[in-house]
# Entry
Amino acid sequence: MQVQTFSYPTQAYRLAMRDRILVRAVSVLCFAVVLAAVYLALAAPVRADTAIQDDGLFLRPMAGPAAGSPAAADPALGEAAQRPYRAAPRLAQTIRLDIAGVVARGSVTQLFRNDSSSWVEGRYKFPLPSDAAVDRLRIRVDDRVVEGVIQEREQAQRTYDQAREAGQTAALLMEERPNLFTISLANIGPGEVIAVDLEFQAKVNREGDAFEFRMPLVSAPRYLPDMELSSIDHPALRATIAKQLEDAARLGFPIDLSRQSNRTALEVALDAGAEIASLESPTHDLVVSRDEQKYRIGLRLGEEPADRDIVLRWATERAEMPGAALFHENRDGTDYLLAMISPPDARISEKLDRPRDITFLIDTSGSMDGESMRAAKSALVEAVLGLRPDDRFDIIEFDNDYSRLFGSTRPANLTAVDDALRFVAALAADGGTEMAGPLRAAMNDRAEPGYLRQVVFLTDGQVGNEDALFRMIEANLGKARLFTVGLGSAPNDWFMRKAAELGRGQTVSIPNDDDAAERMADFYRGIEQPVVVDLTLATGAGTAEVYPTRLPDLYGAKSLMIPVALTEWDGTLTVAGDTSDGPWQIQLDRSDLRPAAGVAKLWAESKVEAIQDTMRAGDLDAETGRLAVLDVAIPHRLATRYTSFVAVDATPRRPEGEALREGVVPNNLPDGMAMGSLAGPAGATGWEADIRIGVALIAGSLFLLLLSRRLSGGRNRRMV
# Structure
């Protein structure tokens, strides 16, 4: 007789089987996570290096959207954003500056050398001062000099493309930002060197008897927040974001890991207009000689890699330079002035004895790692120690997210200052540069009645969404004043200057840690109170155009430079404002005129900037604004967002049938900037952070595995 047995699983048996399945699943999952984490930790440094060598050290949004994403398929991005970088010509350059008083005429000669056996096209991104009026381009091919012409941007691009395809040597100069430009040079023959010359006009900063001119040499990678198109259905909004992505793609460039590219020479002729008491550079070793009234300045090493801005500082003998002057140029019957106005005695500010309610905002993103972070911490410590007991303060630090020391401003007593110093000492740089949230939070802090509300923003300004941030500043500033402290060897001076201007404040640059404490102390004292507010400028008979239309307040001893265009001018000019002692004014006339070539260009550049400010504020539509810019830029021959220079050699040189190879000249990483902290998706983490993530995943996986086995073991013992 065959007996069939049946087994009915008990509750304990079912629990044991469930635990076995759970342990196996967790074990497999943990093993997979460990493998992935080990790979991530070991491969991250290699991945960072190869990414830098092949595609440049820039943040992912700068290089265009990821392959396969909706943004990548969007035709609005254009073909240029999708092209890979290839081996490029070598580049050397010479910077020449002719400085007279507070007006600087600059020229840049770039030598493109093709060491290959192929015909090549070279492209190079390079910075200029943010207020530079670029007004000339020419190329030298063999014994021929070809002058560039100014055209609307799209037309200039077409002219260049046609010359490139026809085998003609051609150069195209385009503005990507007011302080960032691209040169494209087509049809450089094998073994050939071709020179590109560009010229510009700029202003010198003056503060009392001290003067400073900063010449940018390298542009750092700029961060942009990720912008997803997949979830956006509105066509207009989608097109706007696609255009922003295209703009972001134009900011990318490859990086030379050796930091030895683009060797640069410097030739400066300085006529200070008075006897010089001191002359120095906090960034470079100089060699100086005197030629009658002018000082000749060069680099002690002759030439150096373009890896940091050149900063020149000089001081004149006290009281030799006037407190006010009119630099003048007459062009086509119009009088163009650059009015230099120095504040009255800065000690007036000591009488405005209002306590400050101040929020310090410090950038701790990856681009700040290294020298910039050290300088930022030194500067912030100096500022905190400079607080008075009746002041109120708070500190916000940010990268991908932000955190506050106190949550709101509180009295600067000994306990609060001690907490702040410990907070600053613990700061470290890593992650992305998400500025909008913390900047809005800082500006939305409301001061107690009777307090002067200020925001001091310490950053390198390495962002590419400047316009969006400017709009946010204008919308949220309220009664606060925004002051910017540009940190590092190559800060984004366009963002620093414009943010402070829109914030009714001032800006200062601190290139390194050695310069930080003294520089910040002077700046911090200078911004304690405005010396003169509600400034106005009046002329006699005739018509005047002044830009910016709203004049900033005067702080400390820093001079104000006001470009003015006058028709039928009667020769008088009055600047007036209010101080704590009552009304203040200064009157100037033709006896104060100092001839200065290029003042008309500075005025035109200021007007273009004012038009774009109006467009950004929404008070001028895009097409009307574009036409208004063209009306200024074309007659004054200025490179702008809507106009470009193009120079074409009439002689076709590349043989028919010869291919043209593209190459983008690499930039150096700015001196003091830490390379690894910038690599990774959207600049969120560096490879050091990848290692930390990997170790954390391994530890978490082992913990889960041990916990699951412990639980399983306990249940099995209860079954016995």
